[in-house]
Specification:
The chain is an all-alpha fold. The protein contains 10 helices and no strands.
């Protein structure tokens, strides 16, 4: 809870967007409840979206705890956290952990909202297709992590090996620098790049899994 409060207080613009989104969900849920009473179901969808978003933010915070230990330079220079962490190098470990966690949550909340929306769309009512419960729908998330985590590891290894220097001329120049650890910097960057790629691939995988489960449920019914 303290981490979330610190994150929101340090990112006022993002906190405002999250608050606005929550307000919209609250209004829509209230409207649906007023119109349909006990038959209202939209609030469950909004709760599922919030749940998936929170899971994504938690993953982002944990992921950046790992990568900040691989390369504090990636966050200090690449994410421009020098103004928050001061000029002492290497920066304080605890301060770096907090800063990296906030960066991770800020980078993943929108991805979580997108993933939740795609899963809900895949579970929309269709002819001869039984809708899955929200609990069953949530079980698709571990499958997403089973794709994201290996992709992130592979990306980190490729970055450390220097196999990603072709993506930017700056990386080629880093290899010749000796004032920080360029290969660790590229490993952290590669891990994040791999996570993004894995997220896209994983989203396709879990969507197909949801559709497959709906077909199985239909046959069983």
């Amino acid at each position: 809870m303290r981490l979330m409060l610190d994150f929101l207080s340090a990112n006022h613009w993002l906190a405002g967007r999250i608050a606005a989104g929550a307000l919209v969900f609250l209004i829509l849920a209230g409207t649906d409840l007023r119109r349909h009473g006990r038959r209202a179901s939209r609030w469950r969808e909004y709760l599922f979206l919030i749940f998936v978003t929170c899971v994504a933010m938690l993953y982002g915070a944990v992921n950046d705890q790992v990568t900040s230990r691989i390369s504090w330079e990636y966050f200090y220079y690449g994410k421009e956290l020098s103004k928050d962490l001061g000029l002492t190098l290497p920066p304080d470990g605890l301060a770096m952990s907090w800063a990296a966690a906030k960066v991770g949550m800020g980078a993943t909340w929108s991805a979580g909202l997108l993933i939740g929306a795609v899963l809900l769309i895949a579970n929309n009512p269709r002819a001869r297709r039984r809708r899955l419960s929200y609990t069953t729908l949530a079980t698709a998330l571990p499958w997403l992590l089973l794709v994201v985590i290996p992709c992130s590891v592979v990306g980190g290894l490729l970055g450390y090996a220097g196999a990603l220097t072709w993506t930017s001329a700056d990386f080629g120049e880093m290899v010749t620098m000796d004032y920080f650890r360029p290969f660790r910097f590229m490993a952290a960057w590669g891990a994040h790049l791999g996570a993004y790629a894995g997220g896209l691939i994983g989203l396709v995988v879990v969507t197909l899994r949801v559709l497959s489960l709906r077909r199985v449920s239909t046959r069983e019914t």
